[in-house]
Amino acid sequence: MSQVKIECEDANLIATIQLPASKSISNRALVLNEVLKQKNLPARTIENISTADDTQIINKALSEPNGVIDIKNAGTCLRFLTAYFSAIPGLEITLTGNERMKQRPISSLVQALNSLGADIRYLENEGVLPIAIKGTKLKGGKVSIDTSNSSQFASALMMAAPLMENPLEITLEGNLVSKNYIEMTQSMLQEFGFESSFSENTILVQTEYRPKNTENLTYYIEADWSSAAFFYEAALLADKADILFPGLFLNSIQGDSIVAKWMEELGIRTIEKETGVYITKGKTPSTSNFSFDFTNYPDLAPALICATAGASFIMNAKGLSSLVFKESNRIEVLSQGLKQLHYRVNCTSSQLEHDGIQHSFYENSVINTQEDHRITMAFAFFSILQSTIFLSESESVQKSFPNFWQEAAKIGVLLKIDTTGRKKK
After folding, report:
1. What is the CATH number of the domain that holds 405?
2. What pLDDT, on a 0 to 100 scale, did the predictor assign at position 213?
3. Beta partners for 141?
4. Each residue of 203-242: pLDDT tens digit?
5. What is the pLDDT of residues 58-78, one digit of tens each?
6. Are residues 43 and 121 in the same domain?
7. Both 261 and 401 in a single domain?
8. In terms of residue numbers, what domain contains 44?
9. Rounded to whole angstroms, how far apart are CA atoms 133 and 226?
10. Is there a domain that residue 208 lies in?
């Protein structure tokens, strides 16, 4: 197995960290801007767009919609593009991806779209990529979608709805995960001029354009709360921490801003400044036993699970069922990594528990991140505890946080050796 070495020079973290722009908001903004163009409406000027790989993939696909499009391992791109392309009459596209992407289910979305008049067919195996899409005018009306694996199925339908003949009523089936991302989509539809409602398990999206403000056609992308979670983790593991995040705000459409509340319980204070958010060490918790439900916040699980382990807190992480369908099976990969660090771990298909005790000294075994960006970032900060950690790779961070290693270096966490064994400059 290839490996990279991560070292930490200091346990006092004092820095200004430049977080990436939100990938989730950026990807939605790009799709909604194309919806406006398809309806011959004034597009928005998008500022501070994410430079993450996923956003570059979706941006290129929307800019050059032809032939075979390889979305690699970008689940968001798969779902959003499938719905959008299917609603563009005359367009013929094939979507494919890497081997992991070809294992991630999409049948619920395809079935829903085809029931609305789409023409989507599987080219190899039923229910997964690659798929061939022939765009057509979708009729709208009523449709049901299973959101027990991903809320992105619903978000994809919501953003394609303004291109349909009639308003779209979506019934959500199964145990809804990541509800806050549907709420983000609803908020952004409103900002881009399309009204929608969301109550209990029903979403209704209108096709008419009714902008709130026709004077300001600029849309600014917030800094990313999901990425901030890893530096909250670092702060919890350090002896001292004073970190400023410019462009990050507590009043956010990003549900993952709940990490500020959760980390307050663990002993990290969050203070909102005029230019962003500042975090520092707060009171030591009165308990060492914590339980968090990640049903609506699955992207926070790697950081919080690793943070609590490193801080010697007992953790019961619930609501993890959707982690099986991420870039890796995150329940399995987190469990294996923590066991290599000598924590006792118990997990099921929706839950993970660890005891917060490192029962033996870590002996430089390589933690296999499965090329999953959030796993890589979460385990990298264990170097704060033990000065060195070995990971199987370091490049996966490009998916969501391209400047992660540069920002981590500001708090003394250094990528020392690349996969060829050469010293990093």
Report:
1. 3.65.10.10
2. 76
3. 168
4. 999 999 999 877 789 999 999 999 999 999 999 999 999 9
5. 999 999 998 999 999 888 999
6. yes
7. yes
8. 23-220
9. 32
10. yes
Domain termination site, one of 176, 194, 220? 220
Residue 130: asked if its preceding bond is cis (omega within 30°), the reply is yes
d(CA 215, CA 237) in angstroms, rounded, equals 47
- Name the β-bridge partners of 21: 223
Cite the active site residues: 299
Q: Does any domain span residue 423?
A: no
In this structure, are 149 and 267 located in the same domain? Answer: no
Question: Is 69 within the bounds of a domain?
Answer: yes
Q: Is residue 424 part of a domain?
A: no
Q: Name the nearest CA neighbour of 311 among 265, 346, 277.
A: 265
In this structure, are residues 145 and 265 in contact, taking their beta carbons and an 8 Å threshold?
no
Residues 193, 242: one domain? Answer: no
Bridge partners, residue 413, by sequence: 8
Q: What total number of domains does the chain contain?
A: 2
Confidence check: pLDDT of 1 > 90: no
Interstrand relation of 240-246 and 218-220 (parallel, antiparallel or unpaired): unpaired
Residues 278 and 296 in one domain: yes
Q: Give the residue from 220, 242, 265 where a domain finishes.
A: 220
Position 425 confidence tier, pLDDT thresholds 50, 70, 90: very low
* Residue in 280, 291, 276 with CA at minimum distance from that of residue 238: 280
Q: Percent of the chain beyond pLDDT 70?
A: 98
Residue 419 pLDDT greater than 70, yes or no:
no
- Are residues 231 and 300 part of one domain? yes
